[in-house]
Amino acid sequence: MPAKKAKLTGVKAPRRRPVDGVVLLDKPKGMSSNQALQQVKSLFGAQKAGHTGSLDPLASGMLPVCFGRATRLSAFLLDASKRYVTRALLGHSTTTGDAEGEVVEELPVPELEPDFLAETLERFSGEIEQIPPMYSALKHQGTRLYELARQGIEVARAPRRVIIHSIELLGRGERHIDLAVACSKGTYIRTLVEDICKTLGTAGHVGQLRRIGVGELPSERMLNLQELQELAGEGLSALDSRVLPMDTIVGHLPAAALNEAGVRDIAHGRVTAPEGFNHIGQLRLYDGDGEFVGIGEGQPGGRIAPLKVLCAQPDGNGTGAGAAKGPGTC
Prior knowledge:
Archaeosine Trna-guanine Transglycosylase, Chain: A, domain 4, eight-stranded mixed β-sheet
C-alpha cells in the first residue's frame, strides 16, 4: 500500500481580514502588476484585493490596489484618464515596442528641428487612431495577442480611437526624446511612441515608462513596496492608516446626502426621491453620518436610482448582520 502523506499539525494558514479602501502603489520596474498586487495583499492580510489597469513589467508608477468593497468601484479607475512620462529611444524598433524586445528595424535618426518636432507632437494631440500592438492582452478568437506573438503569429487588428489629452516635450538628446502624455483609457504608449518616431522619419521604441497619475487620485499618496514593508513592521494599524477611503475612487463625482429612508431604499435596490433633489447623472451617496453608501444615478423627476450599493442591507427590522449602526449602515 502507498504510504500515507503526513499531516501538518499546529500550522495554520495566516488569517485574512476584511479591508475596504484603496492603496496607491508605486509599482517598481521589473515586476508584473499581479506580482505587486499579491505582495500588497499579503502585507495587509486582506481577504480580497485587485488592481485596476495593468502596468507592463518594464513600467513603474501608480498602480491602484483596491481592497474589499472598493473592488466594486474598480471600473471607474479602468475608465479614467491616465498620465505618463516616457523616454522614446530613436533609431531602433523592437518586437514588443519597448526595450525588452528584439530589434527588428534600424534607421538613421534625422536632425530634428524644434518646429518640426513640435508640429509632429501636435499631430498626435486630440482624437487619434491606434492599431493595438501584438504584444497586448487583447484577444483574437479567444487567445491573447501576446500568446500569438510569442509563437511568431501576427493577426490583423482593427484600429481603435483613443484621445491624447495632452503631449509635452520634456527634453531631448541625440537619440531620445522625453515626453509627458495624458490620455484616455485604452491608449498604448508603445504604439504612440512608434507612430511618433515614424512620423519623425525614423524608428523608435519605449525605453522608459512611468505612470504618474490615474484620474484624479492624489499622486502624492503613492507608496512603494519598501515603505509598505516598513509600515507592516509597525503593525496593521500603521498600514491601515495609509488606506484611502473607498469614495476617493469617485471623488470627481458630485455628492448627495440621504436621510434614513433614502438609505434604506438604496440599500434594498430601490429608487428614492429626496426632497429638493434635481441632479441628473452619477453621484456619490452618503448617509446622515457622512458614511459612504454607494453610487447613484440622478434621474428626471428628482429621483435617484442605485448603481453601486456598498452599504450593508439590513433585514426588515433594521437588525441582523450588517446593521450594527442602523438601517443601511455601511
